[in-house]
Specification:
The complex is a heterodimer of chains A (358) and B (303). By secondary structure, chain A is mostly helical. Helices cover 65% and strands 1% of the residues of chain A. Chain A has a two-stranded antiparallel ribbon with strand order 1-2. Classes of the chains: A mainly alpha (358), B mainly alpha (303). Chains A and B meet through helix 6, helix 7, helix 11, helix 12 and helix 13 of A and helix 1, helix 5, helix 6, helix 9 and helix 10 of B.
């Protein structure tokens, strides 16, 4: 209904009725000024905005991205492989042993004089005449894959167990949480070592010849051990989150307004606990990498000839006086990976943890 | 308090039992017995050997015998050296305990000092520097730290001697074992110190004109210490497992080196015994730190 100032009935002298002639209509431009300028943000967009403002997190994300691209792309064109001795003219080159970075062996120099082009050994070679650069790349690959997969296993088991326990509550919850308490009180690193020793022996004979044997019994036992032991922290976290969110006033309000259970879970419970869970997964990856490198170092990690950063460092210990760079390189790579994952995880927590935002 | 103590002690006993069970049955699951060799020995000899070590009895009974022996402090004999394991552990643990004790002491003292400095100079350069360094130390695995320290300070710069039995120099091993728990304690102290410094009683103390040093040491630090107590249990666990690596790197003949060697030698009785021994130590440390935490924190109610 539009008002026309001229068509209004005559105003009584004493009436408080507004005299519309004294007013001007707002132009469209003026109307636009009163609209709320800022778009409403979602939880995700708000978090991303905060994350972008955190230079440390962005820097570590860039470092991680570069690392991942390197370890994916380099093996595609790199002429050497991680388990093969260097060959010149189709013959194994036994002189290419313990080369320093960017040097060539005698046979390779001969081949170069004959006009062949030979790709330089960027980090030299190891004592079995294998190119060290590609071994470091594969080692980083193994470490990252182990970290990712172990965290995924932990996430899946912990999420299922924790949400069942938190959702059902009551006796189920009590029994399930007692089991968690007991596993939680076991000294984890010791148990990892023990189970890896045993798994290696059992799987080693069971896997012979099967497709999985290429991954190696050590790696599989590592995943099994992670699946058995490390999920308890995640299960506790998920259960605690669900329990505490379930009792919040906004869930009660939503229920009072008649929202169906599906909507409450989707709109209220999940968004509030997903961020915490993802942050914990992000911080789980470096700890898995830590454990893997520790096991590799004491001789329980991935099976030779597959390298991992831990086993590279442990191999380098033997020649520490003459080939120190062979220790320093994997050390730097592993520290870089763990450091940037930790910093990125911290940044994620600062940006996405709803409890910290208040 | 009594009820809580009983509950925690019971849980610890159950944990130790479960650890021994896991260890025993896991080791039993490994194919091949200790006397199975490529060349089969005389069956009579085999049977006599098995009877000597109770291997002819059912597994359940073997476990009970093992537990009985454990409770008397009898861990069996090492497969490689044939010596009494209890004796080996006693001998080697003395070295590890010395190393671990020094590392734990340094970690706690330095961590508390650095954490307090960081909290008091919040957002100034000492705080930034400390937080940067602790983040760095937390991200470097202990074996990397140990080898780098060995490489730089003992082999390149030659500031400290390499560890040997005739000239035991504990500086580098202690530092490499200490940095991670120290960083953790620093962060813990900083956050709890900040928490305490914002409390009303600190403001009251300052308002009534108490000297700043007294405010910090008497009112703030004493209360900020409480959360640190809870970390003692995990720290003992970290130092015990970390010393496996550190001792191997510096070739210190402690329990850690012995454990790694027994893994490489597949000396199963030794692995079992060391695992159980270390696990009991960790469980006891966690139990004690939990109980002390309940004792010193007046805010926690006992139910």
């Amino acid at each position: 209904m539009t008002y026309n100032a001229d068509k209004l009935p005559r105003k009584n002298l004493l009436s408080l009725q507004i005299d519309l002639k004294k007013f001007e209509r707002a132009t469209d431009e003026e109307k636009a000024q009163h609209e709320i300028m800022r778009e409403s943000t979602t939880f995700f967009r708000d978090g991303m905005r905060k994350l972008k403002k955190n230079p440390l997190a962005i820097a570590s994300l860039i470092v991680l991205f570069c690392l991942v691209v390197t370890i994916i792309v380099v093996p595609m064109f790199y002429p050497y492989s991680y388990e093969q001795m260097i060959t010149v003219n189709g013959k194994r080159d036994k002189t290419a042993k313990n080369l320093a970075p960017f040097t060539y062996s005698k046979n390779e120099l001969k081949a170069i004089e004959e006009g062949q082009e030979i790709f330089p050994h960027i980090f030299g070679t190891d004592e079995l005449c294998r190119d060290y650069f590609i071994r470091v790349i594969y080692g980083a690959r193994v470490s990252l894959v182990v970290g990712l997969f172990a965290s995924l296993i932990v996430l899946v088991i912990g999420l299922l167990y924790g949400s069942i326990s938190g959702y059902f509550g009551g006796k189920v919850d009590i029994v399930m949480m007692r089991i968690v308490d007991i596993i939680y009180s076991l000294p984890d690193t010791l148990m990892v070592v023990l189970l890896s020793v045993v798994m290696n022996q059992i799987l080693g004979s069971a896997l012979k010849g099967s497709a999985l044997s290429k991954i190696g019994p050590n790696m599989i036992s590592l995943f099994i051990v992670f699946g058995v032991l490390y999920w308890v922290g995640m299960a506790r976290l998920v259960r605690g989150q669900i329990l505490s969110i379930k009792t919040n006033e906004y869930v009660l309000a939503a229920r009072a307004l008649g929202a169906p259970a599906g909507r409450i879970i989707r709109r209220h419970i999940l968004p509030n606990c997903m961020s915490v869970i993802f942050i914990s997964v992000a911080l789980q990856i470096p700890s898995a990498i830590f454990t893997e490198s520790f096991l590799s170092f004491i001789g329980l990690g991935v099976n030779a000839p597959m390298p991992s950063l831990g086993s590279l460092a442990s191999d380098a210990l033997n020649g520490i006086t003459s080939y120190a760079y062979r220790l320093v390189i994997p050390a730097i790579v592993i520290s870089l990976i763990v450091l940037s994952l930790n910093l990125f995880g911290d940044g994620l927590r600062d940006a996405f943890d709803p409890k910290l935002n208040q | 308090m009594l009820k809580y103590t009983v509950k925690r002690v019971l849980l610890a006993v159950v944990t130790v039992f479960i650890i021994s069970a896991i260890t025993f049955f896991a080791m039993n699951a490994i194919p091949g017995g200790p006397f199975s060799k490529e060349k089969a020995p005389d069956p009579a000899v085999q049977a006599a050997l098995e009877a000597r070590f109770n291997l002819d009895k059912p597994v359940g009974q073997q476990f009970l015998i093992y537990l009985k022996n454990l409770s008397r402090g009898d861990f069996g004999i090492s497969l490689k050296t044939g010596r009494e394991i209890a004796q080996i552990i006693q001998e080697k643990f003395a070295v590890s305990a010395k190393l671990g004790g020094m590392a734990a002491g340094c970690a706690i003292v330095l961590g508390l000092i650095l954490g307090s400095i960081a909290a008091l100079c919040r957002n100034h350069w000492p705080d930034r520097l400390i937080i940067f360094l602790t983040t760095l130390f937390v991200s470097v695995p202990s074996f990397i730290l140990a080898t780098i320290l060995l490489l730089v300070f003992a082999l390149q710069l030659k500031w400290v001697g390499v560890f040997s039995t005739s000239n035991p120099n504990y500086v580098l091993p202690v530092i490499s074992l200490m940095l991670y728990p120290m960083s953790y304690i620093t962060r813990l102290t900083k956050s709890s110190m900040l928490d305490v410094l914002g409390q009303d009683y600190i403001r009251t103390a300052r308002a009534k004109g108490v000297r700043e040093a007294l405010v910090i040491f008497k009112h703030a630090l004493r209360n900020a210490l409480i959360p640190v107590v809870t970390y003692v249990g995990p720290m003992v666990a970290y130092i015990l497992t970390g010393s496996m690596v550190v001792e191997t790197v510096f070739t210190i003949g402690g329990l850690g080196t012995e454990f790694v060697r027994s893994i490489n030698n597949q000396d199963y009785p030794m692995i079992m015994a060391t695992t159980i021994f270390l696990a009991v130590l960790m469980v006891v440390a966690t139990l004690l730190s939990d109980l002390v935490y309940k004792l010193v924190d007046p805010k926690i109610t006992f139910d």
